[in-house]
Amino acid sequence: MRRAGLFLLCCCVLAACTRTGTSTGNGNPWTIPGVLRIGEKEEPDSLNPMFGHTLATDQISDLLFSSILGIDANGNVIPDLATEVPTASNGGISRDGKTITIHLRRGLRWSDGAPLTSADWMFTYHAVLNPANNTKMTYGWDRIASADAPDPYTIVIHLKEPSVAAFDILQVGGSAYPPLPAHLLAKLPNINRAPFNSMPVSSGPYVLKEWNHEMSLVFVPNPYYFRGPPRLKEIIWKIIPDPSTLLTQLRTHEIDVYPSVDTDEIPYLSDVTGIRVVKRLVANWRHLGFNMSKPQLSDARVREAIAEGVDWRYITDTVYHGYGVPAVSDVFPQSWAAPTLPPYHYNPTDARRLLAAAGWRLGTDGVLHKGNLAMRLTISSTTSDPDNEHAELVIQSVLRPLGFDIEIRNYPANVLFAQSGPIYSGKYDLEWSVETNGPDPDDSGYWNSRFIPPNGADTSWLRDRIVDETSDAAARTFDERTRTALYQREETRIRELNPAIFAYWEIGYVAMNTDVKNYVPAAFIADEWNAWQWHI
Predict the structure, then answer these.
(1) Beta carbons of 377 and 429 less than 8 angstroms apart
(2) 429-486: per-residue pLDDT in tens?
(3) What are phi and psi for residue 439, nearest 5 degrees?
(4) Rounded CA gap, 185 and 200, in Å?
(5) Cβ atoms of 416 and 266 closer than 8 Å
(6) Which has the closest alpha carbon to 143: 181, 98, 208, 176?
(7) Could you give the 3-state DSSP secondary structure of residue 165?
(8) Residue 403 in contact with residue 364, Cβ under 8 Å?
(9) Beta-strand (E) ranges in 401-499?
């Protein structure tokens, strides 16, 4: 989903393009002018970003919604609904860092023609913190002391203390939610089951025309989009879980874009006519996550034994064919805050020592036992990528001689990551998945105990004073030198505790029809950041 060698030289910093096959000077005969067909493995679990946990939700959110601020392909913060990015120099952030002032564009409208104003953001702020709503994460929003809208075009946010997280909620991804339509939702006691969640009005470049579950979503231009009509007449988001079928449809030109090309399919792209391939290092980190609330996994020595009992580089280089950069933490390696940590070392002998020190003994059944506990675990991933199961089989087989009896139990992405699904409900032992970062290194939502579900995405159930204190302190200052030191301490502690094992950072490949213009893959969050400029 997400080989060193020759490719890596081209991938590590900037996107690179290669042209494959041939096409006519007048365009490809299979191109449907104005209609872009995208092949995606996943279906969103919700179209309301407040509730959706899947990457598909983040991607489609950029089609349907405009945020206060956006993120470009390289992670730079740019204005979206706001006229400018608030900074200390332009007065948007107060000198004490505790007040953020946002100025909205004039004439904004929802796709149903209703005005979009500061009242919509104020409604969203209250909805996020409304305990009756099943908000997936309140991180950043909970740093707000109060907010007001002195006029339809101004939002003033008063913070309890300076907070990077409160600035980040104005953007996209994670706990950053766009303004929601108060004129449709404000009268509801909660919006958990509002029709809006599956058929929303839009503030973004496109409007949902139809959602054919397990098949496709179809989007058409939003006539009231503030930048003017987007350049496409229609976007067809085809849900194709099987990577081989995606490659086949790329080859037969039934799709125009294949994002996140499966690693098994990358070598075959050279055989496809009329496409170009774009590749770049992206902020998606593959990891093995632990449910530390499970008694078998509550001891850090057991988690360290698993870290030493598997050759993670082997999995990256063989199962995922080297299309990844080895990871040592969840901070993007090109970030100013990237910590200095050693790579994981494969050492089954020391893994056995750690297990014995933790009180685990091999039984006659070949399984580790400790009192009434047996080391029988499940591992879960998404069903949309065959490489995931291949990796799970490797993990299962190499840990078996150490006494781990692991059952593979996989799910569709919209089930695995649903609010009531295995990961967020804590009904899992090990999970093999990919997380997507925004450009800021703040990772409190993953590791700070305040964000254990249902309050956030600390799905490892990690509770640690040092991690809590350092992540909180790093989010309270905008000073990069101070934050870098704090993240070094936090990530060192995370490495000691091993709530997750970081396998690799993804080198993403996007294959597209040579007639597609202005589709610029992004390092962060989603490629749809400039969807209004796409055309074919």
Answers:
(1) yes
(2) 999 999 989 899 999 999 999 999 998 899 999 999 999 999 999 999 988 999 999 9
(3) -70, -25
(4) 11
(5) no
(6) 98
(7) helix
(8) no
(9) 405-408, 430-436
Backbone Cα Rg of the chain: 23
Residue from 513, 55, 503 nearest 323 by CA = 503
Alpha-carbon gap, residue 407 to 127, rounded angstroms:
40
| Beta-strand pair 500-513/257-258 | antiparallel
Dihedral through CA 130, CA 136, CA 139, CA 140, nearest 10? -70
Provide the token pair at 372.
């009434």
| Secondary structure of 325-393 in HEC code, one letter for each residue | EECCCCCCCCCCCCCCCCCCCCCHHHHHHHHHHCCCEECCCCCEEECCEECEEEEECECCCHHHHHHHH
Q: If DSSP codes are grouped into helix, strand and coil, which group holds residue 225?
A: coil
The whole-angstrom separation of Cα 364 and Cα 378 is 21
CA distance 500 to 513: 38
Give the separation between CA 459 and CA 136, rounded to whole angstroms.
12
Residue closest to 102 by CA, chosen among 60, 147, 63 = 147
Polymer length of the chain: 536
**Alpha carbon distance 196, 129 (integer Å):** 19
CA 69 vs CA 152, 156, 167, 450: distances in Å: 17, 15, 10, 26
Q: What is the pLDDT of residues 219-236, one digit of tens each?
A: 999 999 999 999 999 999
| Cα separation values, 161 from 97, 144, 154, 176, 483, Å | 7, 8, 21, 19, 16
121 is written with which tokens?
């953001």
**Which residues are bridge partners to 93 per DSSP?**
100
Is residue 147 within a helix (H) or strand (E), and if so which, with residue range? Answer: strand 144-151
Q: Which neighbouring-strand residues pair with 432?
A: 288
336 Cβ partners below 8 Å, 6+ apart?
A: 441, 480, 484
Give the whole-angstrom CA distance, residue 59 versus residue 87: 27
3-state secondary structure of 303: helix
**pLDDT tens, 260-282?**
999 989 999 999 999 999 999 99
Q: How far lies 484's CA from each of 331, 393, 440, 491, 505, in Å? A: 11, 37, 12, 10, 20
Say if strands 430-436 and 376-380 run parallel, antiparallel, or are unpaired.
parallel
Which residue's entry shows tokens 């098949």? 215
DSSP class of residue 400 equals G
Amino acid at 533: Q
